[in-house]
Design a protein that fits this description.
Elements (H helix, E strand, L loop, with lengths): L1 H37 L6 H5 L7 H10 L4 H14 L1
Helix pairs in contact: 1-4
């Protein structure tokens, strides 16, 4: 009985460590995404958290002609990543 309680306590500590590690990894991932995906395009985290409508075909055409990627696309990529995490 005593061994079972010790085992449960050990498992509980391991689970807590795993959870803390997962949270830390998520935060690190979010920081990298921000630094690599949003910041170079002048997008703030607040802006990235707001809902964005999907790109229209006209917007896609314009971006292809101009050779620029719309901010909306980067925001949608960020939001998709957040949903997976």
């Amino acid at each position: 009985m005593l061994e079972s309680a010790k085992s449960m306590e050990k498992n509980k500590k391991l689970l807590q460590e795993y959870t803390e590690t997962a949270k830390l990894n998520s935060m690190i991932s979010q920081a990298y995404i921000y630094e690599l995906l949003l910041k170079p395009h002048g997008i703030t985290l607040e802006e990235a958290e707001r809902p964005v409508k999907p790109l229209t075909s006209k917007e896609v055409q314009k971006s292809l002609i101009a050779g620029k990627t719309p901010k909306k696309l980067f925001i949608r990529l960020y939001q998709r990543h957040q949903q997976k995490g």
